[in-house]
Amino acid sequence: MERLVLLxxxxxxxLLLGGTAPASAHAALTATAPDDGTVLxxxxxxxxxxxxxxxxxxxxxxxxxxxxxxxxxxxEAGHAGDRSDTARVTLPDRLADGTYTVAWRVVSADSHPxxxxxxxSVGAPSATAxxxxxxxxxxxxxxxxxxxxxxxxxxxVALLVGPAAFVALCRPPDPAPLRALAxxxxxxxxxxxxxxxxxxxxxxxxxxxxxxxGTGALTTTLTTRPGALLLVRLALLLPAALxxxxxxxxxxxxxxxxxxxxxxxxxxxxxxxxTWAAAEHAAAGIQVPTAxxxxxxxxxxxxxxxxxxxxxxxxxxxxxxxxxPATVVTRFSRLAxxxxxxxxxxxxxxxxxxxxxxxxxxxxxxxxxxLTKLTAVALLLTAAAASRxxxxxxxxxPARAPRVRAPAPEPxxxxxxPPPLPPEGPRPTTSAxxxxxxxxxxxxxxxxxxxxxxxARADHHRRALRRSVLTEAAxxxxxxxxxxxxxxxxxxxxxxxxxxxxxxxALPPASVxxxxxxxxxxxxxxTVQLTLDPGRTGDNAVQAVILSADGGLTTVPELxxxxxxxxxxxxxxxxxxIDRGGYWSTNAVTLPLxxxxxxxxxxxxxxxxxxxxxxxxxxxx
Length: 621
Known about the structure:
This protein is an alpha+beta fold. It has 3 domains: 26-137, Immunoglobulin-like, CATH 2.60.40.1220; 140-400 and 454-487; 511-619, Immunoglobulin-like (Sandwich). The protein is built from 12 helices and 18 strands. It has helices spanning 2-17, 140-170, 179-205, 217-222, 225-247, 259-277, 288-318, 326-355, 360-363, 365-393, 432-486, 492-500, and strands at 29-33, 38-40, 46-51, 55-56, 62-65, 86-90, 98-108, 113-122, 511-518, 525-533, 538-548, 553-554, 558-565, 570-574, 578-579, 584-591, 595-604, 610-619. Strands 9, 10, 11, 12, 15 and 16 form a 6-stranded antiparallel beta sheet that branches. Strands 2, 4, 5, 7 and 8 form a 5-stranded mixed beta sheet that branches. The chain is elongated. Residues 396-432 are annotated as: Disordered.
């Protein structure tokens, strides 16, 4: 058992160290209104986001920042047209000209937060100071603690449900060594659930763990679906504790648990599993009822297998060889085979539902993690096959060889034997009783030798089985860790759907380039800020603003702009910018080839002073 705890602890530490990066969310942004990077003649009334699945809103789901980085007063966040896959915020009636930054953070239907930012401009683009203050994305410590607590919850439910199922279905004669294992699972699940409940508010807000104890943090958590499900899980732990007592003190005939335990145990396990299924991937996307049922079966099969392995390993280590019948191991072997069948069927369905296509298996992060998990499962099945082979040999090995007692020597009849002669004299004739005694001693010696050989063979089989089960449990812990990471990764179906949509949020559709210039006169330094929309081959719109040395907007008498592609000896293409009264623009620039183009800006600041400067513009295909 000590080795198992060490291996599980090592896996947990690796998971903790690998969990410090920002967690991937599951609802992907597919559209924004207005479009990200767009320039509008007048301020919009709303900002609307559309996602691949339903999202929950927070009090601070939107932060709208003006060009100076100051927060704009907005209305309360809500859904657009009662569509749960949207988020909308109302803007003030009048917004000054310039570029505005919208930072957003919502909670996807599978309980994971999603965040990002977008920009839009009113009248003309401008410099903005908002990029440094778009709000939190995720606190690394909070994310690591939350992921660790989720892994511990998965492991704990396996240690709670698995040993109970092992006792009920495999019927070991003395389940006492398994009480501590189940109690560890119960206490660990209690601690992990409390930790998840406390960390829920800072996890959603992207803040540090200390904010969990802020005013109203826990109250707000309990009003959300993930918080309510965690509270239900805590409530279910009380009847689970009461049920452990009769399970590990078997009653009824043949050492079976009583009828009350048999009737209440499975529904309680299903209810516990539902607190996971109703809060994660299964609760969002297509075929939700089927997905929830599949998720419940998948989790219970995992718990029965992994927890049963821990129970078997504990019995093999702490139970004498003569006290553990081979039938117990055989029953668990059949139970494990049934669990593997359930895992295979539900796993295939969940993989199809999460991926959506074969290409997502290799083109998405979710698919890569799934392939890694399948490799680990293959190793797990190999270890399980070895355990089954050693299990098949146990019934042929008797637990204890029969003891053979030598018969008492028969009393001698007839006249008494003469006294023994001196060593140098003739040897006496051996009597029948002496022969009987020697034969009995030889038989005892032979049977004892056979017993020693049988016992040695039994010990060898038990040691081999224990090693195999230990390997199986260690690989199963790794599979459990990969499962935890998978539940924190965008499903391939959602990632592919978001990629097919117009690129919004993280990847701006417009290409922004700054070109510094210096005329060489007092006040003659500044920057030309170009926005090329969409920044791809074909027709593009160009907006340009002139920024002074201190970053403020300024006007110039003339601005000319050309594009060239030196690698293909193409250009210069004159953009023919038009003065729009504060900024320059055109909607008719055609860039036929992808590559790094040279943008040459000629700025005239007076009747006699002008300068040309160049910048690099990346144009995608």
